Amino acid sequence: MATHNELGKKGEDLAVEFLQKNNYKILERNWRFKKAEVDIIAIKKDILAVIEVKTRSSNYFGNPQDFVNQKKIQLLVEAINEYVIYKDLDVEVRFDIVAIIQNKNISKIEHLEDAFLYF
Fold this sequence. Notes:
Blueprint: H1 3-21, E1 25-33, E2 36-44, E3 47-56, H2 70-87, E4 92-103, E5 106-112
Parallel strand pairs: 3-4
Antiparallel strand pairs: 1-2, 2-3, 4-5
């Protein structure tokens, strides 16, 4: 597996652990619809959290969350609309980013709730 794929997988595992510690129930990982892949779908209380995980080894080229672009947002919105219909859910939906900087054995995790409001 390529180094960036390993870093991404480790980041997703760290994000799941972080979310579970913060009382999120993980419903799906790597859920796909057409060209979209939703990293994590979780629920806390009555809020369905759609979570994009971005992991980098440093912030030299920018913060991890800076790498979520408009096209990715559109794909996630389309995918989660399908998910909610498919699962027949009646919940509030929120789009979050878990930004991780993983350098050697040190992890910095930042959970940005309602992250797409700022795009």
